[in-house]
Amino acid sequence: MVQPLKHHADGKQRTDRWGSYPETVLIFAGDPEIFLDLREPVLPATRKALAALGLGEPFGILTALNPRGQPLPADENARRARALESELRGAGDDFVRVDACSPDRSHRESSVALKVSRDRAIDLARRWEQIAIFWWDGSRFSIEGAISDDDAMMLPRRPRRTG
């Protein structure tokens, strides 16, 4: 679970290093669905599958759910998700639906992946009161603060042990 924002003496708002964000798995809508575990490096086959969805270049992933990391009732989150998608369609932004999930899929947040600049993705997330976005720079993912002033975190967070 993402930790709430804390105000620090320097006036900045930070989390406790992103809570569970680095443990997220992403499920991109499509035929077939694309499953991506942010705890692992992105494989060439996954890069190719993302490109086939129109996500071969840098893109951001954001949600409108649970503003400031505070859980909302399911009907309010559903309303917010529809409103975000409507706003994006109205602006002419193409997007792909993606679910950001806990590894066991017990927690799932409807999100969107869209090809916009990093700054625009962060601005959208701020307007929807989101702590952070996931950013794909074309080679790897990172967590980028929106309303949080935490420094960006490159993913995967630590190398996977073998053997």
**Overall pLDDT confidence:** 89
Q: Enumerate the spans where pLDDT stays under 50 for 5 or more consecutive residues.
A: none
Task: Give the total of beta strands.
Answer: 10
SSE series: EEEEHEHEEHEEE
Strand content is 25-35%
- The rounded distance between the terminal residues' Cα atoms is 30 Å
Structural class: alpha+beta
| Helical percentage | 10-25%
Give the domain tally.
1
Q: Within the largest sheet, what's the order of strands?
A: 4-3-6-7-5-8-9-10
**With helices defined by DSSP (H or I, 4 residues minimum), what is the helix count?**
3
Form type: globular
Biggest sheet statistics: 8 strands, antiparallel
Radius of gyration from CA coordinates: 15 Å
Please name the defining characteristics of this protein.
26% strand, alpha+beta, single chain, eight-stranded antiparallel beta sheet, 163 residues
Question: In words, what does this structure look like?
Answer:
26% of the residues are buried. The protein is globular. The chain is built from 3 helices and 10 strands; from the N terminus they run ββββαβαββαβββ. It is of the alpha+beta class. The protein starts with 5 loop residues before the first strand and ends in a 9-residue tail after the last strand.
Could you give the topology of this structure?
Layout: E1 6-7, E2 13-14, E3 25-28, E4 34-37, H1 44-52, E5 59-62, H2 74-90, E6 95-101, E7 108-114, H3 118-127, E8 132-136, E9 141-145, E10 153-154
Antiparallel strand pairs: 1-2, 3-4, 3-6, 5-7, 5-8, 6-7, 8-9, 9-10
